[in-house]
Amino acid sequence: MPTPKQYFDDPREADLANRVWEKSALLPGHWQLQTSHEIFNNAAWPWMNKRIIWARDWITTKREQDGLGGVNSLNAEFHTNFTAEEIADVEHFYVAALLATIGGPTGGIMLNAIGDSFWELVVGPARIAWSYGIKAGLKSFRPNWQQLTGPDAAGTRFSCFYTFNQLAEVMGKE
Q1: Eight-state DSSP code of residue 125
Q2: What is the pTM of this model?
Q3: Cα dihedral 30, 14, 69, 88 sign
Q4: Would you give the DSSP letter of residue 60?
Q5: DSSP class of 66
Q6: DSSP 8-state code for residue 7
Q7: How far is CA 18 from CA 5, 12, 64, in A?
Q8: Long-range contacts, stretch 28-37, CB < 8 angstroms, 24+ apart
Q9: Nearest in space to 142 (alpha carbons), one of 132, 130, 157, 128
Q10: How many other CB atoms sit within 10 Å of the CB of residue 10?
Q11: What is the mean pLDDT of residues 17-44?
């Protein structure tokens, strides 16, 4: 089975993605999911990869904990020195993977295409424009497009691989 690190060109981001993936296997029973992720975790859809839910919840919580994009909280836990940008790229990867696992074998790709595009090209720039002005919001389109075509696309591919394999495994047992 592929690991998240295989979906990254940057070796540091690949290392972080893999660390989060390994951490996600240890979280059930030791970590309280956010409410929205708890709902997804309780869903009984046969294609869902619960580990992706745990990975996304953990890295998002770390990013939000310290107000510095996870630099303090995540690096303290891993004893590393990842940058806020590296952490954000890996979080985007797991956000896209979560959307793809929720959407199922075919719906995941469509859900990501719609959800990620809306987030990166509408919500993200609007949030920046609201806080820093229209000019800053417009400037954010390029980095947001890079997120959409980089980590978001990689997360979708990673999740879809697991989605198809899990569904095939479940159907093979029936």
Answers
A1: H
A2: 0.77
A3: negative
A4: H
A5: S
A6: G
A7: 5, 10, 20
A8: 28/54, 31/57, 31/58, 33/57, 34/60, 34/61
A9: 128
A10: 15
A11: 89
